[in-house]
# Entry
Amino acid sequence: MASRNLIASGRKIVAIGRNFSEHAKELGNAVPKTPFFFLKPTSSYISNGQSIEVPTGCEVHHEVELGVVIGKDGRDIPASQAESHVAGYTLALDMTARNLQDAAKKAGLPWSAAKGYDTFTPIGDLIPKDSIPDTNNVDLSLKIDGVTKQNGNTKDMIFKVPMLIEYVSSIMKLQAGDVILTGTPAGVGPVKPGETVTCELGTKGTILSQLRFPVVARPNKP
Amino acid sequence: MASRNLIASGRKIVAIGRNFSEHAKELGNAVPKTPFFFLKPTSSYISNGQSIEVPTGCEVHHEVELGVVIGKDGRDIPASQAESHVAGYTLALDMTARNLQDAAKKAGLPWSAAKGYDTFTPIGDLIPKDSIPDTNNVDLSLKIDGVTKQNGNTKDMIFKVPMLIEYVSSIMKLQAGDVILTGTPAGVGPVKPGETVTCELGTKGTILSQLRFPVVARPNKP
Ligand SMILES: [Mg+2]
Ligand SMILES: [Mg+2]
Ligand SMILES: [Mg+2]
# Structure
């Protein structure tokens, strides 16, 4: 499935926070004892090669993540049956206006704007489920202008994919086309207009997805 | 348009917080100087007559709201052109697990779970735009078992509909089928299994929508 199909038909994006302890620590946060998540709007999707926009006044951070694409509707899905609800995987970025998120956290306000700007969810094509037999051994990396910034492996996830599907579906039913973003490894940081972000997903030495996104300033209002 | 079309095709629900000063005060919050919003998943929609579920451990509050249904895609929509992007209006409830929201606010965490459980967005049919010539004079009321709990008018909104469309679309593009929930008047409070919630929307003495939702306990996991 090309990312444009996901972008056209996706219903929701459920993004897990602080799922890698080194990343939780680098932002000064406690390591969570239960998962938590926020929603991103599907209007924030862009596909490979499109531009990530930096809105005026926003410090925009990259977060490279494994995305789980739901293929079958379900509610209260037990972890033991989670895999049967998965269509496949994808490589995605959870772009974040870190300064707005920090302000929201302090004020006890929602993260939705900080996480939801247009272009804040760059996403790749569907990776067939069979290509990733073990979701606990996926390499994720990200470079800015060729310099490595993030380089992690999903073995360091605090909450594993089946448990995340169980948790999310105990609150909100999952529907075909929904995407769960499973959290980012350490190394997040700002992107600036003029830079180019590249990222890669692989397993056991095989590269399964490579994406490239130029960074631009969000155009001013007309 | 029947609510089932909205439920089937809607992309996102953008819900404005604290848009009535009496409601902001009743929860001990400051009256906001700029709007803020959170996202609800479209998987939380139910239509007239379906049951609102109370999950175990949740204190679930009713919030009756005017919904704005987007009819035309747009980004950076100026308030002066906002009306041309509106397909019509709807009556909706922004059901809220208040205890989870309070905990999230204290911890600086997202509101998404507290606002996003299945059945937490009961919604009526589309009310044609022409039926509401003035969005600043819409009556909203809600009863539990026939006893009035909320009874307000959108004249008391802090941020008016055109400004809300301008604000939201300056962050995330609006797409046909998106719904903006515009905030609730004072009088929010808990609903309990066995009760029946009814709500009404009207303008200048004409009732435009009447909805009814039984309240049940969320069934236990299989
Ligand atoms: Mg949120
Ligand atoms: Mg993230
Ligand atoms: Mg509300």
Summary: Residues 3-217 of chain A form a domain with the Fumarylacetoacetate hydrolase; domain 2 fold (CATH 3.90.850.10). The pocket of magnesium ion (ligand 3) is lined by residues B 15, 63, 65, 94, 181, 183-184 (CB under 6 Å). Chain A has one domain: 3-217.
